[in-house]
């Protein structure tokens, strides 16, 4: 307010405050909705030994996610002397917070589906092994693309260029490697961050499409085929 937002009204401030407050409270509700039933099931003896390890790991992730959120917000509240830039949290901490949330969500969903749906026992053919490896590689690529999106958000890199497929008048912008050393550009140069996110997004979409086409050549259970088709549909929507 002192250095940038002189004209902000109390109503505008309340909007930001309630957005943050709602996010914190929702996070706490999610934590309680997981930890309290888990403790009850544990006390009743309803959890097998492997499931106890899984429950402890997920509980740890829930707590770690909250701690990481506090650590991220803290970076946006630190005074930066001689800086009149827009106040923002560290893009590194934002990416870590998002990445941790994705891991927590994926692990929770995987655990739930493993309990609810029996695993298909298919013959371990060469094609099936390749499909599984391809799916794991695509998962890693999508995860990396999402993390690069956090860097875009943290640096407001989406505001640098708003044309597609070119960035301005060029395919490769002039200031792509403006920072020194070169490695800094990947994480701190808004132009490079947006460029990387575009390339990763296109690559992820291509990988999902290729995964779908490859899966059509293999005899798969109906549930697996529906999953691959849904993945392609969501990739198109995204």
UniProtKB/TrEMBL annotation:
Example GO biological process: heme A biosynthetic process
Regions crossing the membrane: 25-42, 54-73, 93-117, 138-161, 197-215
Matching InterPro entries: COX15/CtaA_fam, HemeA_Synthase_type2
Cofactor needs: heme b
Coiled-coil features, chain-numbered ranges: none
Cellular compartments annotated: Membrane
Name of one Pfam family that matches: COX15-CtaA
GO cellular component: mitochondrial inner membrane
Pathway(s) per entry: Porphyrin-containing compound metabolism; heme A biosynthesis; heme A from heme O: step 1/1
Keyword terms: Heme biosynthesis, Iron, Membrane, Metal-binding, Oxidoreductase, Transmembrane, Transmembrane helix
Name this polypeptide is given: COX15 protein
Species of the source: Rynchops niger
């Amino acid at each position: 307010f002192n250095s940038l937002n002189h004209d902000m009204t109390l109503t505008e401030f309340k909007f930001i405050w309630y957005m943050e407050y709602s996010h914190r409270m929702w996070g706490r509700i999610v934590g309680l909705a997981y930890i309290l039933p888990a403790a009850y099931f544990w006390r009743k003896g309803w959890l097998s030994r492997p499931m106890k390890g899984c429950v402890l790991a997920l509980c740890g992730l829930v707590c770690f996610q909250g701690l990481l959120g506090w650590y991220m917000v803290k970076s946006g509240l630190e005074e930066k002397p001689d800086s009149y830039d827009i106040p923002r949290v560290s893009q590194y901490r934002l990416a870590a917070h998002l990445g941790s949330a994705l891991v927590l969500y994926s692990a929770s969903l995987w655990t739930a589906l493993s309990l609810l749906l029996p695993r298909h026992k298919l013959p371990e053919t060469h094609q099936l092994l390749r499909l599984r490896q391809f799916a794991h590689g695509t998962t890693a690529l999508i995860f990396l693309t999402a993390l690069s999106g956090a860097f875009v958000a943290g640096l407001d890199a989406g505001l640098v260029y708003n044309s597609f497929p070119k960035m301005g008048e060029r395919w490769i912008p002039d200031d792509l490697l403006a920072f020194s050393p070169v490695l800094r550009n990947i994480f701190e140069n808004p132009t490079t961050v947006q460029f990387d996110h575009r390339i990763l997004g296109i690559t992820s979409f291509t990988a999902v499409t290729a995964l779908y086409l490859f899966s059509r050549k293999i005899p798969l259970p109906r549930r697996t085929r529906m999953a691959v088709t849904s993945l392609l549909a969501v990739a198109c929507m995204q």
